[in-house]
């Protein structure tokens, strides 16, 4: 190979973290989609990713596109925004979240991001100093792991306990943390488990993190999508026990994941994020990254203020009924068990009982063959940290969900171990 100035010409090396590209949800789903039988006449049932926008029952409220149109046609939002977000939108988020808080958030506590995905990127990048480590849940949301590895931030995993409704194993949190631990992440309502933490459990998490001197990052992208017996309680309620970074977005509750609008909120009445220098560091990061589009920021105030209660409740009913269908149909498929009935988010974790199956070696094999034979897409558990489990999205049209679960049942009977 030609060598110029000591470099091999075109000798691409790349970031090893990206070449090693462990496992991303999108990467796995692309492989599953490609594995479908080309001659399949039946429609594909997408139970792999939580994006129900193609289904009429999950259409957003007209308040949302109206708000975007109003903001755009006002011509007031064609400028670059301030890197922290425009003032009125920050105020709107502070007011929206404060309704569930025992104290009032200030607009200055709010930083607007390009979806919750960028919120994760920002928070992880800001925390990633040399030798630091961070605690993530297992199972979890692999975007966190991917971001941490790109930032060379060491990851340690604590377990969520299925028998206890996927609560955090706080003993494992205590055992993992040391003087270099910077934060722990919780996702509530949970993706991938579909549970909702109780007030009491959140309080225990706050007390544990406070004792260990670590921040809590609470991913509440599914905030308010709780339809079981546990009401949604934001972690920021415990902001005076432990400093909390609340991450959120409009992607899930308003079902507009393509709109790329989210936030980071410092839920911290004692001002520890300011005193510790975290806020300054985060602002410096915001200055070198991109912002959510200004017209979307301009629309946010109307979206948060004018969305009607009946939109929220209609979506919640649709998702609750879907969760019921999933839970009931799973009972009829012997190779699957659902350890905890889903009560929040749009997804559930299901255990795969491999000994009941013939010629299926693991969860990935199950999902690949299911895609090929039935055109049903579900996510192998290993992608979210639990081998031989499956993550199933139930936020699809009810008829599609029935169809998909019927096909999984037929798949089971074809592959069941003979007595
Ligand atoms: C969907 C999701 C995100 C990303 O949200 P966007 O606003 O679409 O970027 C982050 N965290 C969890 C747990 C999610 O399910």
Automatic annotation (TrEMBL):
The keyword Acyltransferase does not apply. InterPro entries: Aminotransferase_I/II_large, PyrdxlP-dep_Trfase, PyrdxlP-dep_Trfase_major, PyrdxlP-dep_Trfase_small, TyrNic_aminoTrfase. Residues 40-61 are annotated as: Disordered. GO terms for molecular function: L-tyrosine-2-oxoglutarate transaminase activity; pyridoxal phosphate binding. CDD domains: AAT_like. Its cofactor is pyridoxal 5'-phosphate. The keyword Nucleus does not apply. GO terms for biological process: L-tyrosine catabolic process. It comes from the Eukaryota. Keywords: Pyridoxal phosphate. Belongs to the class-I pyridoxal-phosphate-dependent aminotransferase family. This is Aminotransferase class I/classII large domain-containing protein.
